[in-house]
Amino acid sequence: MAIDQSEARKVAHLARIAVTGEALPALAAELNGILHFMQQLNEVDVEGIEPMTGVEPMRLKRRPDVVTDGDMQPAILANAPDAREGFFAVPKVVE
């Protein structure tokens, strides 16, 4: 299936892309290249091959689930530009 300039104009319109008349031949050629590549992919025999999520199987790194006491409020509030009574202070937004 080949895409001509009128088809490329329709695709650009549907994709809400502004394409000038002189850019239509290049767009049509690019879309034809994409379709050709898709046809090549359809020719590959993938019978019995499991889908992959990555190139090599890897387990995600996990941190140990350890309960901590926290108690870092003074250290955290030290980074705040404005803190009052143990909380972050922010400017009033709603009147």
From TrEMBL:
GO molecular function: asparaginyl-tRNA synthase (glutamine-hydrolyzing) activity; ATP binding; glutaminyl-tRNA synthase (glutamine-hydrolyzing) activity; transferase activity
EC number(s) from the headed UniProt entry: 6.3.5.-
Superkingdom, natural source: Bacteria
Reactions that this protein is recorded to catalyse: L-aspartyl-tRNA(Asn) + L-glutamine + ATP + H2O = L-asparaginyl-tRNA(Asn) + L-glutamate + ADP + phosphate + 2 H(+); L-glutamyl-tRNA(Gln) + L-glutamine + ATP + H2O = L-glutaminyl-tRNA(Gln) + L-glutamate + ADP + phosphate + H(+)
UniProt cross-references to Pfam families, sorted A to Z: GatC
Family matches, as Gene3D superfamilies: Glu-tRNAGln amidotransferase C subunit, N-terminal domain
Example GO biological process: regulation of translational fidelity
UniProt keyword terms in alphabetical order: ATP-binding, Ligase, Nucleotide-binding, Protein biosynthesis, Transferase
Family statement drawn from the similarity comment of this UniProt entry: Belongs to the GatC family.
Subunit details: Heterotrimer of A, B and C subunits.
Cited function: Allows the formation of correctly charged Asn-tRNA(Asn) or Gln-tRNA(Gln) through the transamidation of misacylated Asp-tRNA(Asn) or Glu-tRNA(Gln) in organisms which lack either or both of asparaginyl-tRNA or glutaminyl-tRNA synthetases. The reaction takes place in the presence of glutamine and ATP through an activated phospho-Asp-tRNA(Asn) or phospho-Glu-tRNA(Gln).
Name listed for the protein in its UniProt record: Aspartyl/glutamyl-tRNA(Asn/Gln) amidotransferase subunit C
